[in-house]
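Lecture notes, continued. The same structure-token format from the folding unit now serves as the input rather than the output. Read the line below as a description of shape only.
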């Protein structure tokens, strides 16, 4: 979409793996190799609408990956690649610290719960899971074992790609066809329609959009069990190991997450009907 030059395409792929959404990665590489550029030039070069071009430039500026001139017409320029990679390295270092903090704070809790009486253990269970594939296996088990409802929140920047690549979107479609009530709160992403369009349009699932910078991820099945992420790997790789989640069926914990979901659902907005219908048709074609 940006270029047929393999090295630049590889750079886009590497930036995506680091957690930068695809359209932002495309825009950044365009600025890096062709900039400074006006928003209209970005839109034309990448075959975006002008509104989409401005949106991606706005996101890059907010991340500190690009800046705009004060002169007229306004032009945008990419921050040097080394600076961007240093920011990703700092984020990864901070994520590792959060993972270690999570381990230190939760291991004693899990041990104390394991040491509880059998009667208490039968009432509620906690299990910490690390690694994306292991967490996704637990998520699949949760979805398949639910008979009434699924409630999900994911503001991960690569949630659409992950849902497709892990088979989660197909699984949810299958369960929705069987009458499971499905509600999800997500960030809009470039492949939103391709991931969820058919489910939203044909199977009665409900989606709302909540643009948040913070990453929130959890899924609740039948109001009885919750899988919640405490640390999120920002990459879109299926073998990412920095994801950490807790599986829990403690009643109070699950009810707290149900209440949190209900509050977010009220704040979230429904997809624009006209724009969303158009995106579904585009994805279908």
């Amino acid at each position: 979409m940006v270029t047929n030059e393999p090295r630049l395409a590889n750079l886009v792929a590497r930036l995506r793996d680091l957690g930068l959404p695809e359209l932002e990665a495309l825009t950044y590489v365009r600025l890096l190799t062709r900039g400074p550029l006006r928003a209209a030039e970005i839109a034309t070069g990448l075959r975006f609408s002008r509104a989409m071009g401005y949106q991606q430039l706005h996101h890059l500026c907010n991340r500190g990956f690009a800046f705009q001139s004060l002169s007229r017409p306004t032009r945008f320029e990419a921050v040097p690649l080394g600076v961007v990679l240093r920011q990703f390295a700092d984020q990864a270092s901070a994520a590792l610290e959060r993972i270690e903090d999570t381990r230190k704070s939760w291991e004693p809790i899990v041990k104390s719960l394991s040491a509880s009486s059998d009667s208490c253990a039968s009432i509620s269970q906690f299990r910490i899971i690390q690694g994306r594939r292991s967490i996704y296996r637990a998520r699949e088990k949760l979805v398949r074992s639910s008979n009434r409802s699924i409630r999900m929140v994911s503001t991960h920047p690569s949630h659409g790609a992950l849902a497709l690549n892990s088979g989660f979107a197909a699984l949810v479609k299958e369960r929705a066809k069987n009458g499971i009530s499905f509600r999800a709160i997500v960030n809009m992403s470039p492949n939103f329609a391709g991931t969820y369009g058919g489910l939203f349009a044909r199977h009665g699932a409900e989606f709302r959009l909540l643009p948040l910078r913070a990453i929130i991820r959890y899924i609740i099945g039948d109001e009885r069990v919750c899988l919640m992420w405490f640390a999120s790997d920002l990459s879109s790789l299926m073998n990412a190991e920095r994801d950490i989640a807790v599986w829990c069926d403690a009643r109070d914990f699950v009810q707290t997450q149900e209440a949190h979901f209900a509050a977010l659902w009220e704040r979230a907005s429904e997809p624009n009907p006209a724009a969303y219908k158009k995106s579904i048709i585009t994805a279908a074609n």
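Point for the exam: The CA atoms of residues 138 and 247 lie 8 Å apart.
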